[in-house]
Write a structure and sequence with these properties.
170 residues, alpha+beta, Aminopeptidase, seven-stranded mixed sheet, 7 strands, 27% strand
Amino acid sequence: MSAPLIRPGTEADLHRLVDVEVEAGQVFRTVGMTQVADDVPQVSDLREAAESQRLWVTQVGSEVAGYISAEVLDGNAHVAQVSVAPAFAGRALGRAMIKFLEDWGKTAGRPATTLTTFRDVPWNGPYYLRLGYRAMRDEDIGPELARTMAHEASLPGIDASLRCAMIKRS
């Protein structure tokens, strides 16, 4: 098996990345979150991230296996989305992409990396705890991250009471 390559996302990748996110999201059906599983990302959002150099693709051989996108919120690097195609699950690709994004933030002088996630879904909150993230207290959440969380709470299937923001200092 080829070693994974993390590279900038391009226009040619965008439709495959939509497929990766939809495929990866199907696991939410196993915890009763069908609306989350039914979500289809917008190519335009991925395009904007690619054009802003905040989208990276993980490639194994010639196949796109996953992707990660970033934002900068409240001065921190922020994991906007990370998805791994089910055919590539269990190979630590998600961990590699998150480390890549953390390093991207460090290189840019960001003091931490943040993300939002479901607190109790095994491949969400507990997973990020294992990667060194900790849940943020409400009073520690900056205004940009708070706006992101409010927007997410407005999406179908997203119950804000089940979510949290997490942080890992650089």
